[in-house]
Automatic annotation (TrEMBL):
GO terms for cellular component: cytoplasm. It comes from Candidatus Pullichristensenella excrementigallinarum. GO terms for molecular function: calcium ion binding; DNA binding; DNA-binding transcription factor activity. This is Sporulation initiation factor Spo0A C-terminal domain-containing protein. Pfam families: Spo0A_C. Residues 139-237 form the Sporulation initiation factor Spo0A C-terminal domain.
Length: 246
């Protein structure tokens, strides 16, 4: 995670816990804003689009698990890495689902080493997405008749990254393609070329009605098929908006 470009929101009504979190983030040179309850935290996540949400499991007025669930089910431009601090041994409501969605659990009092490890595990480049989101993406790629090809794999990973952080749709060559390239051990140029080839095959051999159903009027009529960027943006937007209805 490029800490120099990262923003955190700390949701913690406990003064000592909040000071520990602020101190640890300051050591990592990550600017942070503190809020005192779940409602203010939701507002901050929507308005500030932070990369990190570090919250207390005992956060009022409900609890940290409730807040994390609300964040995961919001159509956010940026899905922050969710880190939940708790009293050691405390069992959270819906803990299995939170972990499956990619949340990280930290014991209180917060230790710098534990925070660094949690940030590494929830970085957008490696962040887990729920099985439901991954299955939905595979369904969309299948409906578009994208062939079993490297380009399909690259597209799938790029869509999941853009789903987590919508800002990447405007940073394709600078950030997104290099992230995909690093993940698969290839060059960014190969990523773009392979994705474009997969899209060309799909639009040449695929079902027009399915392609229209997914893209409708968003494709340039003269060109006839989406660019790599249009494909990534449209599919990540579909995943983001559908998450709200779960």
């Amino acid at each position: 995670m490029p800490y120099s470009e990262t923003l955190a929101v700390i949701a913690d009504a406990d003064e000592q816990g909040a000071r520990q979190a602020l101190s640890a983030l300051e050591t990592l040179r990550i600017p942070a804003k503190r809020v005192l309850n779940g409602i203010a935290a939701l507002r901050a996540v929507e308005e500030l689009t932070p990369d990190i949400l570090l919250l207390n499991a005992s956060l009022p007025p409900c609890d940290g698990a409730w807040l994390a669930d609300r964040v995961y089910k919001s159509a956010l431009l940026v899905h922050p890495a969710v880190l939940i601090s708790r009293v050691p041994g405390l069992r959270l409501p819906g803990e299995e689902e939170l972990l499956e969605r990619g949340a990280a659990l930290l014991d209180r009092p917060l230790r710098l080493e534990a925070l660094q490890q949690a940030l590494a595990e929830t970085d957008v480049a490696v962040r887990r997405t729920s099985g439901r989101i991954r299955r939905r993406l595979e369904e969309l790629l299948g409906r578009l008749d994208l062939p079993e090809h490297d380009g399909r794999d690259y597209l799938g990973f790029a869509v999941l990254m853009a789903y987590q952080d919508g800002r990447l749709n405007n940073q394709l060559t600078k950030k997104l393609y290099p992230m995909v390239a690093e993940r698969f051990g290839v060059s960014a140029k190969k990523v773009e070329t392979a994705m474009r080839y997969a899209i060309e095959l799909a639009w040449k051999n695929g079902r027009i009605e399915e392609q229209y159903g997914i893209f409708r009027g968003t494709i340039d009529a003269q060109r006839g098929k989406p660019t790599c960027g249009e494909m990534i943006a449209q599919l990540s937007d579909i995943l983001r908006l559908e998450e709200v209805r779960v």
